Amino acid sequence: MLDENIPQTVAALLSATYPASRHQFTHVYDVDWGSEKDDPLIAAIADHGYDALITEDRRQLKDHAPALVRAGIHRIGYKSKTRLSGTAAFTSKTATVVAAMDLVIAEIEDAEEQVFLNLHNIPLERGQRLKVISSDSVRQLAARQATDPS
Predict the structure, then answer these.
(1) pTM, rounded to two decimals
(2) Does residue 38 register a pLDDT over 90?
(3) Which phi and psi angles does 60 have, rounded to 5°?
(4) How far does CA 43 lie from the centroid of its chain?
């Protein structure tokens, strides 16, 4: 179950990315639980057979640990980069959750008890995610390759 602070489209993306998984990815808005407070939401998730909650709620683990333990569901949390907004925030949240999900699924499936996980954000700095290759260097490479018969 994806909490209301995760973009709703992430559930569909996870379902498409992991179709062979025995896990179902549903967003709280898809089942009209978007306005539920944490304790009733956690109970409803467990009562309806979901085994995990993915959330960005930073205080949930600290403030609602008894409800999480009682429900027995796994909790996957992450702290998004607060300086981001708009498209950058959306893509960061989406990429963080989707990129980690294969590890999350393995961790849950290997666990013999309830697990609590925190995801690490994907790199956000331009130099960590993008390298600009100068067109001059590509032209020079092309010229060398054109004159080198090997």
Answers:
(1) 0.82
(2) yes
(3) -60, -45
(4) 22
Mean pLDDT value of segment 134-139: 92
Q: CA geometry: angle at 105 spanning 33 and 23, to 5°?
A: 50
Q: Cα(145)–Cα(150) distance, rounded to whole angstroms?
A: 8
Q: Please check whether residue 56 is in contact with residue 27, taking contact to mean a CB–CB distance below 8 angstroms.
A: no
Q: Which residues pair with 2 in a beta bridge?
A: 27, 54
Answer for the pair 79, 86: CB distance below 8 angstroms, yes or no: no
Secondary structure letter of residue 94 according to DSSP: H
**Positive or negative torsion for Cα 29, 35, 36, 38:** positive
Distance CA 53, CA 68 (A): 9
Using alpha carbons, select from 34, 78, 76 the residue that is nearest to residue 56. Answer: 78
CA dihedral (31, 34, 35, 38) positive or negative: positive
The whole-angstrom separation of Cα 118 and Cα 76 is 6
